[in-house]
Amino acid sequence: MPKESSIIRMMKNDYSMLKLNMDNTYKKTDMLLKLYRKVYWSIDERFDDLNNITYETCLGDYNTLTYLLNFAPDKELDTFKAKAISAMQTRLLIDLIGKAVIRVREYPDNGGIYYSIIDLKYMNFFKYSEDEILEELNLERSTYYRKKKEATVLLGYILFGFIMPDYVKKEK
C-alpha cells in the first residue's frame, strides 16, 4: 500500500474538522470530475432546446413566458418547467465546481499544479491524454498520480466543505 502524502494526511484532519468523510467525498468529487466535460458540453444543448421550445411557441421572451404561464397546455408547461429546472440545476452545479476549482488554484502549496491537473484532465474542452498531461506539466507518472489524488481530495474539501454550504446558506 502506498504511503500517504503529507497533504493527504493534513487534509484528513481538515475533513474531520468539517465532519466530512474523506473517502466518500473523494469518490463523489472524482465522479463529478469524470462527468464534467460531457455535462458542460450538454448544458448548452439543453438551453438551446429550451430556447427552441419557447421560440417555436411564440417568438419572444416576454410573450413566450406569458404564453407558457397562461395558455400552454399543462403537460407542455410541466415538460418545459422540468427541463428548465434540470438545466438550471446543472448550470448551478457547473458554476459551483468552477468556483471550487478557482479556489484550488489559489491554494498555497501546489495549487497551480493541482489546478492544471484538474483542468487538463477533466475540464478543458480538449481531452488530453495522460502522456500529453505528463509532458505539459513536466511530471513523472507516479508524481502525477499522487498530485491528481491530492488535487481531487482538495477540490472535494473546498466544494463540499465551503462552496456548497455557503451557497445553501445564501439561499435560505
3D structure, described in words:
The chain has 172 residues and is mostly helical. It has one domain (6-171). Helices cover 83% and strands 0% of the residues. The chain contains seven helices and no strands. Helix 2 (22-58) packs across helix 3, helix 4 packs antiparallel against helix 5 (111-123) and helix 5 (111-123) crosses helix 7 (141-171). The longest helix has 37 residues, at 22-58. The chain starts with 5 loop residues before the first helix and ends with a helix. The model is unreliable at 56-60 (pLDDT under 50).
Question: Which characteristics define this entry?
Answer:
mainly alpha, 7 helices
> How large is the radius of gyration?
20 Å
* Poorly predicted ranges: 56-60
Distance between the termini: 44 Å
Task: Give the number of DSSP strands.
Answer: 0
Mean pLDDT: 84
Helix-strand sequence: HHHHHHH
Tell me the major beta sheet: none
Shape: globular
Number of domains: 1
The oligomeric status of these chains comes to single chain
Task: State the helix count.
Answer: 7
| Helical coverage, percent range | over 70%
Strand coverage percent: under 5%
Which class do the helix and strand fractions yield?
mainly alpha
